[in-house]
Amino acid sequence: MTAISSPAPVIPGRMEQISTRIAFFIAGFGIAAWAPLVPYAKARAQLDEGTLGLLLLCLGVGSIIAMPAAGALASRFGCRKVLSGGTVLICLALPLLATVSSIPALAACLFLFGAGLGAVDSTVNLQAVIVERASGKTMMSGFHGLFSLGGIVGAAGVSGLLAMGLSPLQAMLVVIVITLAALFKAAPHLLPYGSKSSGPAFAIPHGVVLFIGGLCFIVFLAEGAVLDWSAVFLSAERGLDEAYAGLGYAAFALTMTAGRLTGDAIVHRLGATKVIIIGGTLATAGMLLATLSAAWEAALLGYALVGAGCSNIVPVLYTAVGKQKVMPEHIAVPAITTLGYAGILAGPAVIGFVAHASSLSTAFLLIAVLLAGVAISGKVLRV
Predict the structure, then answer these.
(1) Which of 20, 116, 200, 224 makes the best surface tag, with the fewest CB within 10 Å?
(2) Which of 133, 157, 189 is the last residue of a domain?
(3) Which domain holds residue 356?
(4) How far apart (Å, rounded) are the C-alpha atoms in residues 77 and 3?
(5) For helices 79-97 and 49-77, what crossing angle results, to 10°?
(6) Residue 276 lies in a domain
(7) What pLDDT was estimated at residue 5?
């Protein structure tokens, strides 16, 4: 009895490319749907900020545990089954997150939700590596662009539903219908196999995989810093009204999405090495502008530059990990996904620690230095 669900693996083509884009959209849509629910969950469970922060760690723990496990399961049972299972976990968790009020129940639901997100995120990147390689074309930026687009649609859509008077549970039921409809459309052409690479189910990343994972960590660290601290910086340090302080992340997300949706052509024209060098340099300059300028308008421009600069670095790195021979890709892809996700999780804590010890500006300047290191690495990393 074989563990592979298809005796003759499908050669990825146009329909597999479309299904990969839909799966990326599901991943972005799912995680963004939770964001507007946070204030409701906080009020319902009567949580203070510290307790809420600890609870949110359960989401991250679930994701980090699920990512390497998903790589091993996809290698054994195929991407289709793992992506479908992860999507179902997301759909099971969301209505619970909209209704439960006890701290233990919220912790369990967030862990379940994180596991679903981690399984989908890790496996869809593995499928993307396989599909892009089979196509012989540059496609990774476009794939990741659908994740960003899904995030915008999810956050704006759920916020709109709540503003229309729907309850959190009703809004989540709408999200589930859309998510399952997208999965139904994508599932027939999700890959019924995973990586053909042999090797152990789990391994500590090393060599070029560890180097690539470190670069992903830095880029995602910068994203987490902008996500969690740009509003605080703009309101506390630049005097922008709190009602508009979210414009910093909005500017970042807009240019990030636009950069990824047009990124395949950019990567094809410039080459992967120049994308890392130019993107890292642009992101460094944007972070410096956002931090050192006295005007909030200039800070918004800076965050927009960070989004544009970072937009195509991670997709290029995923393409690179699909070409390396140091580790099997069903281990390497989840490894760099996990390291990148750890960057998003570590971002708020690192920034907060440095800001407490020195200042928020110093913390952002540290991120700028790390982004400069990413730009320099483009001359070292062969992609």
Answers:
(1) 200
(2) 189
(3) 207-377
(4) 6
(5) 160
(6) yes
(7) 44
Is 42 a member of any domain? Answer: yes
Same domain, 360 and 227: yes
Mean pLDDT, the chain, as a whole number? 87
CB 308 within 8 A of CB 256: yes
* Residue 99: other Cβ atoms inside 10 A: 16
DSSP per position, 254-312: HHHHHHHHTHHHHHHHH-HHHHHHHHHHHHHHHHHHHHH-SSHHHHHHHHHHHHHHHTT
Question: By the 8 A CB rule, do 316 and 334 touch?
Answer: no
What is the length of the chain? 383
Same domain, 111 and 82: yes
Instruction: Report pLDDT digits (tens) over 65-100.
Output: 898 889 889 988 999 999 999 999 999 999 999 999
Ordered DSSP codes for 141-163: HHHHHHHHHHHHHHHHHHHHHHH
CATH number (domain holding residue 105): 1.20.1250.20
- Asked if 30 contacts 197 with a C-beta cutoff of 8 angstroms, the reply is no
The closest of 223, 195, 237, 229 to 333, measured between CA atoms, is 195
Cα(325)–Cα(221) distance, integer angstroms = 27
Residues 275 and 357 in one domain: yes
Residue 363 lies in a domain: yes
- 100: Cβ contacts below 8 Å, ≥ 6 apart: 45, 106, 109
Determine the Cα–Cα distance for residues 306 and 287; give it in Å rounded to an integer.
6
Classified as helix, coil or strand, 102 is coil
292 to each of 84, 102, 286, 295, 352, how far by Cα in Å? Answer: 46, 43, 10, 9, 18
Domain end: 189, 222, 242, which one? 189
Q: Are residues 125 and 227 in the same domain?
A: no
Does residue 370 sit in the same domain as residue 254?
yes
Q: Establish if 9 belongs to a structural domain.
A: no
Number of domains in the chain: 2
**Amino acid found at 250:** A
**What single-letter DSSP state applies at residue 382?**
-
Rg (the chain; Cα; Å): 20
The two three-digit tokens of residue 113, written as one number: 């939700």
Please tell me whether residues 143 and 241 are part of one structural domain: no
- Mean pLDDT, range 374-380, rounded to an integer: 90
Same domain, 257 and 370: yes
| 166 and 133 housed in the same domain | yes
